[in-house]
Design a protein that fits this description.
The protein is an alpha/beta fold and about 240 residues long. It has a domain of about 160 residues: 3-Layer(aba) Sandwich (Rossmann fold). It is built from 9 helices and 10 strands. The strands form 2 sheets. The chain has a 6-stranded mixed β-sheet with strand order 6-7-8-3-9-10, with helices on both faces. A 4-stranded antiparallel β-sheet has the order 2-1-4-5, with helices on one face. The longest helix has 15 residues. The radius of gyration is 18 Å and the shape is globular. The chain starts with a strand and ends with a helix. The chain binds adenosine-5'-diphosphate (ADP) and magnesium ion. One of its GO terms (molecular function) is ATP binding. Keywords: ATP-binding, Nucleotide-binding, Phosphonate transport, Transport. It comes from Thermoleptolyngbya sichuanensis A183.
């Protein structure tokens, strides 16, 4: 479980996250939505300390990651992250992208890492791309590789920050389909997305961020049909 208590993040005088408290339970799929600049990326990045919270505490599996004594590298092994821009290692083949961290960080053997890597590539329909370099892939293929590269570490948690926002429209579905089947495996996921149909279908809960606060926390059917706040109503009128 991820537990967030009174999380505040400021950049200089700018208060980006304001006293946020919430939980993401094991196996839960949480969609984080909200206007641009509302703090969605900062929220996600605070969870694995890519940003250092200004105040508040974050616990992952009951380990306080905001404790200065916490071994954050160890925690991050258990928290995969996928960004808008795929960030694949350009000088490595697809399979090398998948095997690098398990070998380097976890000490998995080359043979085992490659076997697992090929399994993962098959799962996303990209086994035949194992030996090509990322520059030869489409955006959708790159993002599917980025997802399975994170999965190669066998994390319990996956964080996605607008994984389809940089893709051409015809490639969005292939990535959402991968995320949808991943959600069905029971892995815990937090997904910042503008794909409202996906959020409605796949998420167990929607967190609506506005001005650095959680303005709404509701199951998708409730959020999309009867949003409580005027802000959420306005947002949905624009995007639906
Ligand atoms: P969202 O992902 O919802 O669009 P962000 O979390 O990226 O929002 O950003 C929220 C606010 O914080 C924005 O005003 C943004 O300009 C500001 N911000 C984000 N990262 C930084 C940073 N590293 N330094 C200064 N301001 C930042
Ligand atoms: Mg963002």
């Amino acid at each position: 479980m991820i537990r967030v208590e009174f999380l505040t993040k400021s950049f200089g005088k700018l208060d980006v996250l304001k006293d946020i408290s919430t939980e993401i339970k094991d196996g839960e799929v949480v969609a984080v939505i909200g206007p641009s600049g509302s703090g969605k990326s900062t929220f996600l990045r605070c969870l694995n300390l890519l940003e250092t919270p200004t105040r508040g505490r974050i616990y992952i599996n009951n380990v306080e990651v905001t404790d200065p004594k916490c071994d954050i590298q160890k925690v991050r092994q258990n928290v995969g992250m996928v960004f808008q821009h795929f960030n694949l290692f350009p000088h490595m083949t697809v399979l090398e992208n998948l095997t690098y961290a398990p070998r380097k960080v976890k000490g998995v053997s080359k043979a085992q890492a490659e076997e697992k890597g090929m399994e993962l590539l098959e799962r996303v329909g990209l086994a035949e791309k194992a030996s090509v370099y990322p520059s030869r892939l489409s955006g959708g293929q790159k993002q599917r590789v980025a997802i399975v590269r994170a999965l190669a570490m066998e994390p319990e948690y996956m964080l996605f920050d607008e994984p389809t926002s940089a893709l051409d429209p015809e490639m969005v579905k292939e990535v959402l389909d991968v995320m949808k089947s991943l959600a069905q495996t029971g892995i815990t996921m937090a997904i910042v997305t503008h794909e409202m149909g996906f959020a409605r279908d796949v998420a167990d809960r929607v967190l609506f961020l506005e001005g650095g606060k959680i303005a709404e926390d509701a199951p998708p059917d409730v959020f999309f049909s009867t949003p409580k706040s005027a802000r959420a109503q306005q947002f949905l009128e624009k995007v639906l």
